[in-house]
Structure formats: structure tokens, C-alpha cells
Design brief:
By secondary structure, the protein is of the alpha/beta class. The chain is 30% helix and 24% strand. The relative contact order is 0.13. Bound molecules: adenosine-5'-triphosphate (ATP). Residues 2-226 form the ABC transporter domain.
């Protein structure tokens, strides 16, 4: 269990982390989300005593600085390419193992585990970002720690690598470990994380389970398809708070919000309306993230750069419209947006 209390950090006049308190529980993956510059890396550095700031972090009740062999209890990767410049991957890990009373054989074990056995005698400076991430994870796992703190470990991994990482972290969590991981890959996070800590501009936005985050920051709706859709729509419109929209190009299909799925089914039954489909439509983690952090974005692209030689809009004029992606075969929405 990690207990972070009142973590804070200022850079001059700027508050990077503003009195954050949260817990990261064992046996599950806790995702750490926030827009660029939200303070995720700074928070992780504060947790590991790698930065000066305020607040306190306890790992199973103990401060990082009081743990005799931290590598054997807490594995961390905060920078993808933080390796010894001249040692081979294997010797880099052996050196760390020696410093923490870990047997040398463990270096080969973890290199094998992360898929780097073939390149273990190469220097990490020749590694791609994805390979460096794998070596970082090997380093974090070297001491077989109870706790893992990983800053964007999926960055640079190919799709197979991302899938592999998800399986690894989930299975390490199932073993009862405490996993705290930041990522900008929201679809990945929705598959991997059980709990979320979401911050914006150094402030806590949400701390709780993933479903709760999606529920809190989006509105779910009900999709209902019926050969008597008009009759059902009429009944639904009489329900207080319910909003009914006919789905374009899908005759007999209604999108309903402001009413539970079960209540739609019951209403259909009461009005002798036959249903062909009744489904709850839950918004994505990405939609929830956009809604929750929209006001906290610090670095926002304002306009599309005009190609050389084309006129730029006058200052104060309307911003350039974002380009509409071309439709793909099979797209059902204008512009091909999914
Ligand atoms: N060494 C530094 N000096 C001054 N400001 C800094 C320093 N490090 C971070 N900051 C600022 O603190 C804020 C938080 O930065 P941090 O790197 O923790 O954010 P982050 O959430 O990890 O961002 P990203 O997702 O882009 O990696 C940012 O506004 C950043 O500019």
C-alpha cells in the first residue's frame, strides 16, 4: 500500500503539484492520468524522494529513505533511458543487483522475462525507446519488489509490446503487488487499470475506480431498437428528464438519455412495444478524461499552421478550422470519425 499525503512542489511561482493525497492499494493496477504538464512525473519523483518538495509518502507505512534495500521493495522507472552509458544491459543490471544484495543470476532472469535475452550483451545506448522501456522494467523487477511505480512505461512499445506490458502488470497485480502507472494511452489504461488517480494542473480531479470516473464525467445513454419506435418514443418523451433522439440512418433506433436501461424496457413492456435491441451505451475512458480535464489542459494547440505560401488569418480573426479526416470505407459518420 502506498499512502501519499499532501504532496506539493513549486517551481518558482508555478505550483506543479498542489497538496495531493491519495492511496495506491495492493492487488490492483492504479492508473495515474493527467494532461501534459499536470504534474504526474513530479508527483512520482516526490513519492520516491527524488525531488525536494512537501508532503510525505509511505510504502507499507515506511518512508522511502528508511528502507534498507529499496530495489527489493520498490521498483521504479521514471525515465526510459536512464542507464549506464558504457556497460552492457546485463552488466548494468548486475551492478545494480550487487548494490542491493540481489544474486547476479536475477539479471539474466529479468532480461529473459522482458524479452531482451538476445541483446543482453549490447549497450543500452543502441536500444530503441521500446527496448529501453523493456530494460527499465527489467531493472524495476530486479529486486522482485512488492511495489512498482512506472512513468509512461508503454511509451515507445509496439502494439505487441503494449499488449505484453498490460498482461505483465495485471498479473503482477494479481500476485498482490501494488502497481502505480502513468500513461497517456487511455484505451490501454481502460483495459489495464482498476483504480485511477486523475490530476490536472497539480490538483486532484478524481481518485477512485475506473467505472466511477466514466460515470462521473460522462452521461451514459440507452440504445433501443423497435419496430414500434415511434410509439415508444412518444411514451419516453412523457418521462421526466428523458431525452429521445432518433438515430440517423438507422430506422427504428432511438438513443435515450436521462432514464435507466431497465426503465426503458419496463416502459416498452407496459405499452406493448416489441423490442429488437436494448443496450446501455457507456462512454469511453477517453471521453471521461476529455470532459474531466478539459479545463486543466495547460498546453493547448491553438491553430493549425498554414502551409508555406498560403495566407494566414489576420490577428484576432477566426481560428483555422481543424482539418476533417477523409472518410474511410465503412465509415458511417460524416468525416469518418469513430
Ligand atoms: N525542472 C523544472 N523546472 C521548472 N518547471 C518544471 C520542472 N519540471 C517540471 N516543471 C513544470 O511542472 C509542471 C509539471 O510537470 P510534470 O513533468 O510533472 O508533468 P507531467 O504530468 O509529467 O507531464 P507530461 O505528461 O507532459 O509528462 C509542468 O508545468 C512543468 O513545466
Amino acid at each position: 500500500m502506498i499512502t501519499a499525503q499532501q504532496l506539493h512542489k513549486r517551481y518558482g511561482a508555478k505550483t506543479a503539484v498542489d497538496h495531493l493525497s491519495f492511496e495506491v492499494r495492493p492487488g490492483m493496477v492504479t492508473g495515474f492520468l493527467g494532461p501534459n504538464g499536470a504534474g504526474k512525473s513530479t508527483t512520482m519523483r516526490l513519492m520516491l524522494d527524488l525531488d525536494n518538495g512537501g508532503g510525505e509518502t509511505l510504502f507499507d507505512g515506511r518512508k522511502f529513505g528508511t528502507i534498507k534495500h529499496p530495489m527489493r521493495e520498490i521498483g521504479a522507472v521514471l525515465e526510459a533511458k536512464a542507464f549506464h552509458p558504457t556497460r552492457t544491459a546485463r552488466n548494468h543490471l548486475r551492478m545494480l543487483a550487487a548494490g542491493s544484495g540481489i544474486p547476479f543470476s536475477r539479471a539474466d532472469e529479468v532480461l529473459d522475462f522482458v524479452g531482451l535475452a538476445e541483446v543482453k550483451n549490447k549497450k543500452p545506448k543502441s536500444f530503441s525507446l521500446g527496448m529501453a522501456q523493456r530494460l527499465g522494467l527489467a531493472q524495476a523487477l530486479l529486486g522482485n519488489p512488492q511495489t512498482l511505480i512506472l512513468d509512461e512505461p508503454a511509451n515507445g512499445l509496439d502494439p505487441h509490446g503494449i499488449h505484453w506490458l498490460r498482461d505483465v502488470l495485471k498479473s503482477l497485480a494479481r500476485e498482490g503487488r501494488t502497481i502505480f502507472v502513468s500513461s497517456h494511452l487511455l484505451s490501454e489504461m481502460s483495459l489495464m487499470a482498476d483504480q485511477l488517480v486523475v490530476i490536472g494542473r497539480g490538483h486532484m480531479i478524481y481518485n477512485g475506480d475506473v467505472d466511477g470516473f466514466v460515470r462521473q464525467f460522462t452521461q451514459s445513454s440507452v440504445l433501443v431498437r423497435s419496430p414500434q419506435a415511434a410509439q415508444l418514443a412518444e411514451a419516453l418523451r412523457r418521462v421526466d428528464g428523458a431525452t429521445v433522439t432518433e438515430v440517423a440512418q438507422q430506422p427504428g433506433t432511438l438513443q435515450v438519455s436521462g432514464i435507466e436501461t431497465a426503465a426503458v424496457g419496463e416502459l416498452a413492456f407496459q405499452h406493448n412495444v416489441m423490442l429488437h435491441e436494448l443496450a446501455t451505451q457507456t462512454a469511453s475512458l477517453e471521453a471521461a478524461f476529455m470532459s474531466a480535464t478539459g479545463d486543466s489542459e495547460e498546453y493547448v494547440a491553438r491553430e493549425i499552421l498554414a502551409p508555406p505560401g498560403t495566407a494566414t488569418p489576420p490577428p484576432g480573426g477566426p481560428p483555422a478550422a481543424p482539418p476533417v479526416p477523409p472518410s474511410q470505407p465503412g465509415d458511417t459518420t460524416p468525416g469518418g470519425a469513430a
